[in-house]
Recover the amino acids of this structure.
């Protein structure tokens, strides 16, 4: 078990402990909306940036310095470990994985990740960041949930309807299950390695979990997310489980585990806490598009969410999904200031 540092409001909030003010960080807070990030990206490709520890650490630190957020999140991509499983990964500009996984033979050809051998750059970035962040803010590591990774691996790219994935799931459930088991095995060792390298919390991103009905989520997703989160439980650090579009099935999402459940904007904070119970912390849940508006609107929406939480412990303020590239950096900084000032 990794020792826990309760000096940070973010860590305290993950465990439902009282805080001096509501902690706030933003999904995709290191990204294209920041001119500092764009300047670096002018010189290096996205995947090269992910694989260069000094640059990935620099980008991770940018929003901590510019916005004053209460946690840093490792700069990387959820598909990085998949490349080491045997699919070719490139960006044009969206991610493309080749060849797509469509058969039992394709699944058999995949291998389980060996972190120190396959992704040493991720672990080196974490070690660099821990030295840079010591005494400032905690560091969050992350990975994709097995289902979301399967969506990309089977489709070969992003998709509107994920028909290839659903066809595999419905027509060849045994092949789908073998794929999910192999992805889950990789996710376990990958996230454990991040924690052992120094990540002080882990977020599991299930960006596409909400595309399924509750019945299909329970049958085809929940067992693997639960195994992943259960396997990481002995680490002793906060586990954040975020399923986009899951407002109608939070009860099922919570069954998978995690100290913190991430929320998008499709469900109110008060309603979510009624479903989850007071022993589960929540993270969210401002619509990212609000940051395109006037600052008085941003302040109004921050106040609304804080009022919905009504001072209950165990709330981390965040967006309901990643920050948009079009957001003015001053609006993101204003959001952080509002959360701190109003809480």
């Amino acid at each position: 078990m990794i020792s826990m540092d309760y000096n940070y409001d973010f860590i305290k909030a993950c465990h439902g402990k009282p805080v001096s003010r509501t902690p706030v960080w933003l999904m995709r807070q290191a990204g294209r909306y920041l001119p500092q990030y764009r300047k670096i990206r002018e010189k290096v490709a996205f995947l090269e940036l992910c694989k260069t520890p000094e640059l990935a650490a620099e980008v991770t630190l940018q929003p901590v310095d510019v916005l004053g957020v209460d946690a840093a999140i490792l700069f990387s991509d959820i598909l990085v470990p998949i490349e080491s499983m045997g699919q070719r990964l490139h960006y044009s500009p969206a991610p493309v994985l080749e060849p797509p996984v469509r058969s039992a033979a394709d699944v058999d050809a995949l291998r389980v990740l060996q972190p120190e051998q396959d992704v040493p750059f991720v672990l080196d970035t974490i070690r660099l960041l821990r030295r840079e962040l010591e005494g400032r803010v905690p560091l969050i590591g992350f990975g994709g949930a097995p289902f979301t990774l399967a969506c990309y691996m089977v489709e070969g790219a992003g998709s509107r309807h994920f028909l290839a994935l659903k066809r595999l799931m419905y027509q060849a459930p045994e092949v789908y299950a073998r794929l999910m088991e192999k992805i889950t095995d990789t996710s376990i060792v990958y996230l454990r390695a991040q924690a052992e390298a120094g990540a002080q919390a882990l977020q599991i991103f299930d960006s596409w979990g909400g595309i399924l009905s509750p019945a299909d989520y329970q049958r085809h997703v929940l067992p693997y997310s639960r195994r992943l989160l259960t396997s990481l439980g002995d680490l002793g650090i906060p586990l954040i489980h975020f399923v986009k579009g899951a407002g109608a099935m939070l009860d099922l999402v919570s069954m998978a585990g995690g100290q913190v459940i991430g929320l998008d904007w499709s469900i109110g904070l008060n309603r979510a806490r009624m479903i989850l119970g007071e022993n589960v912390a929540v993270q969210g849940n401002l619509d990212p598009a609000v940051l395109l508006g006037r600052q008085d609107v941003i302040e109004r929406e921050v106040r609304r969410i804080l009022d919905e939480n009504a001072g209950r412990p165990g709330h981390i303020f965040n967006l309901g999904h990643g920050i948009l590239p079009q957001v003015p950096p001053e609006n993101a900084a204003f959001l952080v200031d509002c959360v701190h000032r109003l809480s």
About this structure: The chain has one domain: 9-74+117-152+185-342. Strands lie at 72-73, 88-91, 95-98, 139-144, 201-206, 239-243, 260-262, 281-286, 315-319.
